[in-house]
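Student: I would love a firmer grasp of how sequence relates to backbone shape in proteins. I am handing you a single protein, as its sequence and its fold in token form. I am told such tokens are a discrete way to write the fold. I hope you can help me see how the letters and the tokens relate. Take your time, and here it is.
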Amino acid sequence: MKRQFDDVQLGSIELFCLAAEAGTFSGAAKIAGVTPAAVSRSISRMEERMGMRLFVRTTRNVKMTEAGREYFIQCRQALNQLAEAQREAMGKQVAPSGTLRISVPTTYGHHRLLPALPAFREKYPDIKVDVHISNRNIDFIGEGYDLAIRVRALPDSGMVARHLENAALVTFASPEYLRKHGIPTSCHDLQHHECVQFELPSSGKPIPWLFTEDGIDHEVITDGGYSCSADVLGGVTLSKNSAGIFQTYRFIVQKELDNGSLVELFETQAARSRPFSLIYPQNRHIPLKLRAFIDFLLERQAIWTPFVLAAQLQGAKVQDDAY
């Protein structure tokens, strides 16, 4: 096989990735321990060799071109895989280590993931965990995430989704609200009650509530004078303070249901569930730190069935309908 790269070219690729991540040649130079001029010359040689512009230079910073961004995504993945292969070959990573960057929605973050992290780090003390708690879109490659937890996620063909759990929904209200307004006996009675609305970030429309009645699944469009967006926990807080009826994941309010500070409604018309999944880029070599975390969560949820979601979307963004 003919040699395609020499050490200088591989070094130039690494400097290119550092400059893309730092946003300046001087920032890349500081990380690499070289001069900004050396970084600039190296990248200029790359551009000349490839016949394309990778950066647009200004007096203060540099900005990647569209071609440069696409090239960066591929280069960063390749460098990460090379580094991981080298660590494994040299036997220096007996135990998983490094920083794990995770994106998780507010609901799952506060009530599932964060309580589990101390046990994970007790088992893997050399892994640092950087958790981003938000429901917004993320760019896996551009923002450097290793893994996301999402519900109804639509990854592209280069992403893998592993089923984590089917999170049961529950409809509830405070005892004070029910004393003032009466107890609805059917989900069809919701039209006569104050229902707290949660608007989906992607559409701005209230999310329908899900029920099963006589074995048939159906959705109920609710109405009310309160609405919240971005963070579904706002609807939980409103309902706790007697603003109205709300539907969310059972794991969020189970303690309140158990102690009587919230009352479950429609137990014979069970609310349905939504599936949460682990989402991560599809690489041949999964870093040990990521493999350890995936196995830890799947073992915790006692769900081991992997699957790849078939989708034809472009880019590596995870949808924000992930509350």
